[in-house]
Design a protein that fits this description.
Largest sheet: 3 strands, antiparallel
Oligomer: single chain
Shape: globular
Number of strands: 8
Radius of gyration: 19 Å
Distance between the termini: 40 Å
Helix content: 40-55%
């Protein structure tokens, strides 16, 4: 499907709540009767993106639908505290990814900041605590955390983006434990050794496969998660901006591919706002919205060399990421500064 960039999505659109409500309606349309938020209606589900979509629902006040998403996680949690990385798909899957399993901490804390219901945190504390226990069991003596377990065996490698996400999850877990006065299993050494590894031990990542440094998430996600300080974050963004940002189109997924993606662009917006770079954030988000389909929804991405959308899908988690970015700019809900911690 070819793309004609319409100027009807003018700058004003990124500030209009009705744009984001359409995204939320679509996410709800992707949610099944048990609470699982599929990529698209009736398609597959992964726990990380399921939570990202639920967070989008939080922003716009869809508390019951978001709660159902966490009920799904409770229902499908494995005895070791994990979740499989993929559900409702044709391919066989035995992977249990650590950053997928720990991300529930981020989602629960975000939900709480929107609705301030301690009973919600208390209800899901056993689920959260088991999930964090599973993730911590994968931490090595170097501070990094193995990316996954398969058939009850840890896979000997670590992901830079994944460990950055876990860093944010551990901080969120600690905030929840403090808020509801529960025993905190995340010790200072767990957080500090992980951060130290991310900052100073690049050899611990991508040890047994090609480097993922070419992916934009390895560039901006540690900034989004608070791994670097402000000055280092700004330098990293500046140094690689030209590699990943395409003028008037947004953020690439992979630096050598002519493909911009809506979710990466929205998450880059969150990283920029964390650093107070509001003008840059507004421009990236508007560029993303200029790629919106006529139905008001976002495609996964756009191959600008061929002037075509690809793949032909509109994932719920893309809408979730866009809502989170819009909230950080427009302050729709009490969680608008969530990524600024």
């Amino acid at each position: 499907m070819s793309l004609h960039i319409s100027k009807k999505n003018n700058f004003k659109s990124i500030f209009e709540k009705k744009t984001y409500l359409k995204f939320a309606d679509y996410i709800i349309n992707c949610q099944d009767s048990r609470g699982g938020i599929r990529w698209e209606p009736g398609s597959k589900l992964d726990p990380w993106d399921h939570i990202e979509a639920a967070m989008g629902l939080d922003v716009l006040g869809f508390k019951d639908e978001s709660k159902k998403a966490y009920d799904w996680l409770k229902l499908n949690q494995e005895s070791d505290g994990s979740w499989f990385s993929l559900y409702y798909a044709n391919e066989e899957n035995n992977l249990k990814e650590t950053n997928f399993s720990s991300y529930i901490a981020v989602g629960l804390w975000h939900h709480y900041l929107n609705f301030r219901e301690k009973d919600f945190l208390l209800e899901f504390w056993p689920v959260l605590d088991k999930a964090i226990k599973f993730t911590l069991s994968a931490q090595t003596e170097h501070g990094d955390i193995f990316w996954a377990k398969e058939n009850n065996k840890w896979l000997d490698d670590s992901l830079f983006t994944g460990c950055s996400s876990i860093f944010m999850s551990l901080i969120s877990y600690k905030k929840i434990a403090k808020e509801i006065k529960k025993n905190d299993r995340v010790e200072k050494k767990h957080v500090e050794s992980l951060r130290n590894c991310l900052l100073n031990k690049p050899d611990r990542f991508d040890r047994n496969w090609a480097s993922k440094d070419r992916y934009s998430m390895d560039w901006y996600y540690p900034i989004l998660c608070g791994v670097y300080n402000k000055s280092k974050s700004k330098k990293i963004l500046k140094d690689r901006w030209i590699e990943f940002v395409v003028k008037d189109l947004g953020c690439k997924c992979v630096k050598e591919e002519p493909w911009v993606t809506a979710a990466e662009s929205a998450e880059l917006v969150l990283a920029l706002l964390r650093l107070g770079l509001k003008d840059e954030a507004e421009k990236i988000l508007q560029d993303t919205f200029n790629l919106m389909d006529e139905d008001g929804l976002l495609w996964t991405g756009y191959v600008y060399k061929d002037k075509k959308f690809w793949p032909i899908e509109k994932p719920s988690w893309t809408m979730g990421a866009a809502i989170l970015a819009g909230n950080s700019l427009n302050k729709f809900s009490p969680s608008n500064k969530f990524f600024n911690f």
